[in-house]
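Q: Here's a chain of 285 amino acids. Please give me its 3D structure as tokens.
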Amino acid sequence: MFEYFDPELPKLKSVVGENGRAEARRSGSTKFQITVSKAPRVVGPADISSKIAGQDAFVQSLNRLDDELIISIVAPAYTASETVEGFLRLNRDPKNSVIFAITYIDDSLPSIVEVSPSTAPDFGGTVVFIQLTNFPIVTETHAVIVQFGSTGAYFGTSISIISSKVDSTLLQVQVPAFPVAKHEVNAPIVVKSVRQTNRVSLPCVFHFQKKGISIESLEPMQTSILGGTTVYIKVAFFHVGLDNNVITVEFGDVLVHPQNISVTSSAVESTIMVIVTPQSDAGMV
């Protein structure tokens, strides 16, 4: 299907709920911010009407930014877990209407409120924080499973329970390595309770990006053919820990002895090594 639209009429730009997504709770009202571009001049909330799944939605406030109108509405409760249609009518003029969709979720089920950061390199090792609601109270890390992707083959490690209460749980998890064929893959995260197997969180999207190892800096950039110069190397996306025995460094065809390699810091984003250069022939390596 191909669509033609009138560029002079209002156009929907975004729909954002309390959890950062176009999702509403079934049990009660949910606040949304709806951004509309090419919006006509609107005096106040009384000039806007809205319905969601046939029910009136309360228009709370509005704010104009250039040609965009940011409208705050309150979505009513709903009886089913499904995606429904809603509309905003500006100046109560049918011509100035925008259609949007929101998904009602069963908020009695565990759900992921936030994952921070929400993006990680494909080779794993990034530490993320996962905040949940309605998750069973847990005190032991082996009682929690954090699954990445839908195949059940990739799981978070080094899980720490920061806090676990009736209404909120905060976990610290190390992201696993995840296959990324090209640039980026969106993988659902699901958190499970081992003891209460029916208490599985609703999925939340996590982004894996393909990252290649690269040398960011090398100081100094030259040395005598006699070697013995201390060189500092910063390598991006090369997380190896502090064990120099797992690293091989070559200057041209000359292998650096492990005793002349020292890792001063190592994280997912970068690793800093101190190298004592070996002897070599003159020239670029």
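Q: Can you summarize the key feature?
A: The radius of gyration is 27 Å.
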